[in-house]
Design brief:
The protein has 118 residues and is an all-beta fold. Helices cover 0% and strands 45% of the residues. The chain has no helices and 10 strands. Strand 4 and strand 5 (46-51) form a beta hairpin.
Length: 118
């Protein structure tokens, strides 16, 4: 089992930046492809960025060029650097494994709220 704790959200003006962190418990983190997801009010949860065990990354078109996902296996942590934030980026952000690489989701954490507003 792997427990996930997201942090780093907050209120930011359009054009601003935030860095999200996701700390994972357990020894299996480094063997998992991970991803960041977000869920805006009234919308389904969507995958915004993924990173494989080897460090390859991919992004949703809506965040490409603005968001960067990275990981530190020594710290069991995955990060999401978000730049040039837009009001439409407002959502609760979660991390979990990336099911496109064969893993099933673990129990979702509480997420971290990101609000982009002037």
């Amino acid at each position: 089992q792997m427990q996930l704790v997201e942090s780093g959200g907050g209120l930011v003006q359009p054009g601003g930046s935030l860095r999200l962190s996701c700390a994972a418990s357990g020894s299996i983190f480094s063997s998992k492809s991970m991803a960041w997801y977000r869920q805006a009010p009234g919308k389904q949860r969507e995958l915004v960025a993924g990173i494989t065990r080897g460090g390859s990354t991919d992004y949703a078109d809506s965040v490409k060029g603005r968001f960067t996902i990275s990981r530190d296996n020594a710290k069991n942590t995955v990060y999401l650097q978000m730049n040039s934030l837009k009001p439409e980026d407002t959502a609760v952000y979660y991390c979990n494994v990336d099911p496109r690489y064969g893993s099933s989701w673990y129990i979702w954490g509480q997420g971290t709220q990101v609000t982009v507003s002037s």
